[in-house]
Amino acid sequence: MIKNKFIVVEGLEGAGKTNACMCIKNILKKYNIKNILLVRQPGSTPIAEDIRKLIKKKFNTDNLIKETELLLMYAARIQLVEKKIKPALENGIWVISDRHDLSSLAYQSGGLGIKKKIISKLQSLFLQDFMPDLTIYLDVSPKIGLERALKRNTLDLIESRSLKFFKKTRKCYLKNIKLNQNTIIINANLNIKRVTKNITKKVLNWLNKQVI
Ligand code: T5A
Q1: Which ligand 1 atom minimizes the distance to the CA of 189?
Q2: How much distance in Å is there from the Cα of 208 to the middle of ligand 1?
Q3: What is the dihedral of CA 43, 27, 103, 88, to 10 degrees?
Q4: Under CATH, which number does the domain 6-210 receive?
Q5: What is the per-residue pLDDT across 90-109, written as a single tens digit (0 to 9) for each?
Q6: 212 pLDDT exceeds 80?
Q7: Domains of the chain: which residue ranges?
Q8: Ligand 1, atom 36: nearest CA belongs to which residue?
Q9: Measuring CA to CA, how many Å separate 159 from each of 76, 140, 176?
Q10: What does UniProt give as the signal peptide span (predicted)?
Q11: What is the DSSP string of 109-174?
């Protein structure tokens, strides 16, 4: 018997988060866990999905300033956490989220240069002690990740930023993931089969330790 958990998957564009979320869902099903909610950030509620469209849109004359971008990410996050994630967890449902607040630290602080203490303040104001039980960080080189994303479709506003932006974002991810407890780091530069195999092995190992 395992109590339901909140699992987050993090990483740069093209890291393979979509594949990882599905892989975790399948592992949980093998444990006979059927109540699973899969969400993405920003998004997964009607309001948060509208915020997502706004964030990704390229405006001709009025692009988002970094502080607005950060606040929109948090607005979408709080809407999702309060409307869907917390109620699901209270009802015994497992939640897998494609990104959470570590993304804001990596992209808006590491990438865009907003002071970490501002993001920590938002985190303590709005999330308080609400934290994932497990964070899986898919570590991909920015070049490989962007090549994968580009192969799939044209790049949106954030994806169009420079390689330097993504290098700073990755550096911030790596620095902060090591400060967190309950994290798994996966080499996401490998082919999808090997990445899936490594995720399966590490998540199973973690799950076995959660059995009450
Ligand atoms: N953002 C988000 C912030 O700036 N701050 C925040 O606080 C939050 C929450 C979200 C954007 O918002 C930013 C980050 C993002 O720019 P998004 O579209 O959800 O927008 O962006 P991503 O989450 O990065 O979505 P991606 O789809 O680009 O990344 P994934 O999910 O990691 O990649 P995935 O799985 O779709 O794979 C992309 C392609 O690569 C292939 C897949 O088949 C697919 O074609 N692939 C591989 N190919 C070879 N080998 C592998 N190992 C592969 N893994 C995947």
Answers
A1: 52
A2: 28
A3: 50
A4: 3.40.50.300
A5: 999 999 999 999 999 999 99
A6: no
A7: 6-210
A8: 18
A9: 19, 14, 22
A10: none
A11: IIIT---HHHHHHHIIIIITT---SEEEEEE--HHHHHHHHHHHS---TTTTS-HHHHHHHHHHHH
With cut-offs at 50, 70 and 90, classify the pLDDT of residue 166: very high
CA nearest to 86, candidates 131, 52, 119, 122: 131
End-to-end CA distance of the chain: 6
SS (H, E, C) 23-67: HHHHHHHHCCCCCEEEEECCCCCHHHHHHHHHHHCCCCCCCCCHH
Ligand 1: atom nearest CA of 11 is 32
- Cβ of 15 closer than 6 Å to ligand 1, yes or no, is yes
The stretch 167-171 carries a mean pLDDT of 98
Nearest protein Cα to ligand 1, atom 24: 13
Any atom of ligand 1 within 6 Å of the Cβ of 107 = yes
Q: Does 52 sit in the ligand 1 pocket, CB within 6 Å?
A: no
Q: Which residues contact 21 (CB under 8 A, 6 or more apart)?
A: 9, 38, 96, 98
Position 159 scores a pLDDT of 84
Pairing of strands 36-40, 94-98: parallel
**How many Å lie between the centroid of ligand 1 and the Cα of residue 12?**
6
Residues that constitute the known binding site:
11-18
Distance 126 CA to ligand 1 centre (A): 25
